[in-house]
Amino acid sequence: MLVQNGTCRTVLFAALLLGFSGSAIAGPTVKPMEPVDYVSPNIGGIGQLLTATVPYVQTPHGMARLAPIMTPGINDRYLADKIYGFPAGPAMLMISTGKVSTRPKDYASTYDHDFETTTPYYYEADLQSWGIKAEVTATQAAAYYRFHLPAGSTAHLVLSMKDGAALKVVGDSVVEGSERVGGTVAQLSENSGETREYFYAEFSRPFSHAETWQKSVLSQSAEQAGDHIGFVADESGEGGDQVEVRVGFSYISTEQAQKNLKEQIAERSFEQVKGQTKMLWNKALGAVAIEGGNESQRTIFYTALYRSLGRMTDITEDGRYFSGYDHKVHESDGHDFYVDDGLWDTYRSLHPLQLLLEAPRQEDMIRSYLRMYEQSGWLPSFPSVAGEQAVMIGHHAAAYILDAYQKGYRDFNLEEAYEAIHKNETQATMLPWKRGPLTSLDHVYFDKGFFPALAAGETETVSEVTGERRQAVSVTLETSYDDWCAAQIAKILGKQDDYDYFMKLAHNYRNVFDPQIDFMAPKSEDGQWVTPFDPKLGGGQGGRDYFTEMNAWTYTFHVQHDVAGLIQLMGGRDNFNAKLDQLFVEQYGTSKYQYLSQFPDSTGLVGLYAQGNEPSYHIPYLYDFSGQPWKTQRRVRQLMNIWYGDGPLGIPGDDDGGETSSWYVLSAMGFYPVCPGSPVYEIGSPIFAKSSIRMANGREFTIIANHVSAQNKYIQSAQLNGKALDKAWFAHAAIANGGTLVLEMGDKPNKQWGSAPADAPPSMSPVAGS
Fold this sequence. Notes:
By secondary structure, the chain is α+β, with helices and mostly antiparallel strands. It is 27% helix and 21% strand. Among the domains are: 37-285, Beta-galactosidase, Chain A, domain 5 (Distorted Sandwich); 429-455 and 466-556, alpha-1,2-mannosidases domains (Glycosyl hydrolase family fold, Up-down Bundle), CATH 1.20.1610. Helix 8 (397-406) packs antiparallel against helix 9, helix 8 (397-406) runs parallel beside helix 11 and helix 9 (414-427) packs antiparallel against helix 11 (472-492). The longest helix has 21 residues, at 472-492. The termini are far apart. Residues 1-25 and 183-191 have low confidence and may be disordered.
């Protein structure tokens, strides 16, 4: 080796020393990365067009969900200029060294992401306006805050509350209170028939001075009740520069909030609680082990998995729970009670993913739905702590419950579940964003087989139709899927007449397919096609006259339960594939600006396919049904690579509590459930060399992708549990007790693998030619 200068000689000498002395002069050992170390909660903190993500500190499915409260009105929270405070149950907690005020905005502080730490178990930020470092960690139902004060300063600790609130100062170091959740009646009794959230906050040092306020008036009163109330106390930096605040949360009472705090934090230090919550996340995230991929892909993956394990929320407290469905406290009887779900979204991939990882918890979630039915008379679709939200369309609890049962997870009362599903399907209106009895429009669906749209130029006369409009085609399509799910449960229970009835309704999707234009299209009540109709831009804002947030290009493929029947409607595989190909390249018919102003939920566009909205998610996998699975492999890779990233713009649209993230988790491992309720998974193209899922029964399902790379995205051959697999799908039963899927990957499509008609995944209709 020719050494040209001193620098090279120094490097060579150091290398020789290292060779002789080994580890004696080696640097410090680098600790291996744990799953939680990859999580970056600020991913998606800038929305592509609509809602940004929230970097919650919480336990998996925890009731305490903590994130800094940013400047009001700035929806892209990563770009917010100030931190206004932190959640203390229903109150907002803040600290400052400024002047005492009754206005929360006067306590707000600037901050800088370069001086911030975000993890699932811990958050830290410098409150730069006040020179204070704030730290946050959480348990299931409690928050633990630690504030580092400037030496010799006097700080103000503040609790502010909004509407229908109450607070009380207890002694010289405790504040407790509550606030109404939802509803409109500002009653403050704990038994008033409303939902309230309670808190119990302990401060680590006695208040040197404390006041309360209501609206703009400071007071020496220890209690306040009403709207816009608050509490402020002085904390001197003398004798220590650290103040801690520990807050228990409850939906039962302030006494229960105190008990939750005592039981979950007790005498443990901030670091001990932080370490315990980190361990919980490592255990939850460690249920999936991945090998291969790059640093960015691992970051995206584990962040997506973290977001997939936040909902539903366990609100069980010490063996009891408050129900917003009858406003009573119930014993949990050994089965935790969960709320906070959105089944229009989550039945698609979030619940199927959670079912793989934590099946007993999913069974308790289904039990929770049945309790809500018992307490309210309806099976909800969007349950919150305050009751049903009546959001979006469809009664997809049928899909959720059927999917769990068909995959062998059955620790719930199926007879009761069917009773509730039957009532929803036959007695609840299908109108968007409604909960109530049948309307004249619902009867058209039952009698004529489609939900009617307004004819061209017709004025709305049905009083139950509100601002979300009829969304008639989407209602028909999503309800026919729910009807198919109801039919399968009826069949399991031996209810033949019900099975026949619901199976007839399950074919209603055919009644809104117009063969003249090869699109799903609206019909008026007289059975005539609505004309003129533009499949791309028809339906007004969000397409809501006819569709749910999307257009006919997306909803034409929304027949999850009968893809084979849809292929037949379109004239066979060639026509279907041509239409599917065109979806990914079709342009907007106007400027992109105008298109997105009409369809703001259609973010993450590839052609007119929108990765930012849930009705699209199964569509890339439909090639597995139509004989061209290599196109599924190409498309899912493209969508993961383009629309998911490791920065604030890394989510393609609304994450909707983890649904958008769960699509990535499953797709990155190489499979996806096109039709929940049918216990199979369609195969895509994994990005990792190995993914191992530790299921709740302790068994492992492993996906091995030999020779996988960015170019080697195409499956050449496959084996499932040691046997050749010639189909682009596999049954849940094949992996329920563990198993291994081995995929041989290459850079060119194998157009024979999985392409025969007989290789297609199951559908309601038989596959032509199989």
